[in-house]
Amino acid sequence: MDEIELNDLSTDRQSQHSIAPSAPGPASESVSSWAWSAAAVLVIASTPLLLFPRFLLFLAESNGAERRTTLTALESFLALHTGILLVAMAIALVLNIPSTSDLPVDMKQPRAPGHPLLWPLSGACAIIALISYNTASVGPLSLLLSTGAGVIALWGFWAIMFESSSSISKKTGADKHTSRFLFWNKAAASAQKKQWKKAQAERKQQ
Predict the structure, then answer these.
(1) Which residue, 79, 96, 164, 203, has fewest beta-carbon neighbours within 10 Å?
(2) Which chain regions cross the lipid bilayer (predicted)?
């Protein structure tokens, strides 16, 4: 009797999940439209900063002022890195657009935990750190920006590598990264896996 009731409950739950799709509402559609529009605006704004920095002089011209033909080293430096950050923000907006598919809830893949800007900003800061380190025309400012961006990039990459739930073993619950070089310890996934296999073998013998 109990087995029949449990089977009925499981079939009812499966039927409910398969019948009730997560239909997108007007709120998610409006957020998607806003995200795409904002990303397009950011990309358009970053284009002259990255590819045509002299166009900024044309936009900044005022009546009666002496016309300039070249940017200073500081202006070029700030324009380049501002453009990189704008592109990173545009990528973050696109990657975090809410899903509008009509798939059931069980068939949707859960997103990896973390901040929406973690991947784009870490990558952008890594690029900024490398470019700034190889720029000597702005003096100590390049070293200062390279250090700050490098810290953000390294910390972000550390969070991406060690805070992901995919690195947790389903059998033992241990962190798989700790079994690699520099992390040889008793809490490593390989050590716990050996203990788990040993315990399973002892149970079979009993």
Answers:
(1) 203
(2) 34-57, 77-97, 117-136, 143-162
pLDDT at 110: 45
Per-position b or e across 123-138, b if 16+ CB within 10 A of its CB? bbbbebbebbeebeeb
Crossing angle of helices 118-133 and 140-162, in 10° steps, is 150
Three state DSSP letters for the chain: CHHHHHHHHHHHHHHHHHHCECCCCHHHHHHHHHHHHHHHHHHHHHHHHHCCCCHHHHHCCCCCCCCCCCCCHHHHHHHHHHHHHHHHHHHHHHHCCCCCCCCEHHHCCCCCCCCCCHHHHHHHHHHHHHHHHCCCCCCHHHHHHHHHHHHHHHHHHHHHHHCCHHHECCCCCCEHHHHCCCCCCCCCHHHHHHHHHHHHHHHHHC
- What pLDDT shows up at residue 81? 96
Q: Which residues of the chain have pLDDT under 70?
A: 1-27, 63-65, 99-113, 164-192
Indicate yes or no: pTM above 0.70.
Answer: no
What pLDDT, in 10s, does the model give residues 62-112? 766 677 788 899 999 999 999 999 999 999 999 988 765 544 444 344 454
**Entry field: residues in the chain:** 206
